[in-house]
Amino acid sequence: MNQDRRDRLRDAAIAVLAESGGRGLTHRAVDAAAAVPAGTAKNYFPTRDALLRGVAERCLEQYREVAAALAGSGPGPADARQLAALLAGMLRDVAGPGRVRVLAYLELQAEAARRPWLAALLDPIGAADFAAYAHLLRSAGLPAGPGHVRALTLALHGALLHLLAGAPATLAAAGLDDLEGFARDLLSAVLPEAAP
């Protein structure tokens, strides 16, 4: 197997998922998105489950790459103000350059609700978020108890859906039309004693 072509097909499948949703993920659509001859995706991923597995594995690789880049970008936020700025930047990425990656991941999560094997493949991504936000809270010198970490992580996860949908009234109601303000307000709500 040609690993470069396999990665190209998996990246194309991520684009298809983001553009067309789970129902649009077909071998033919992946071939077209990857600009490869018809039947190529089927040769690499013979079944739809094999294609879903390949995409999930690629999403996990991309998540680890993003996490490593964040970890390598310095010691972490030094205080609540810096943490709020970091969270706002992460949310901006979801609404911008990371949109395709996150949309595909959420489509896979919907598929995983009906496929336990897929849920198991995606589990490290969701579980790692809790540890990552605990680390960020500790780096900022803030309380990082389980309740704080859960509240922050789940609130951020919930925000993703609204950011991706981009409905202006909902964004305004959620405070997501001002990502810096949203991040500050979220930290104040989760950690009232450490408002940025």
Automatic annotation (TrEMBL):
The keyword DNA-binding applies. GO terms for molecular function: DNA binding. Gene3D superfamilies: Tetracycline Repressor, domain 2. Residues 3-63 form the HTH tetR-type domain. Residues 26-45 bind DNA. Keywords: DNA-binding. This is TetR family transcriptional regulator.
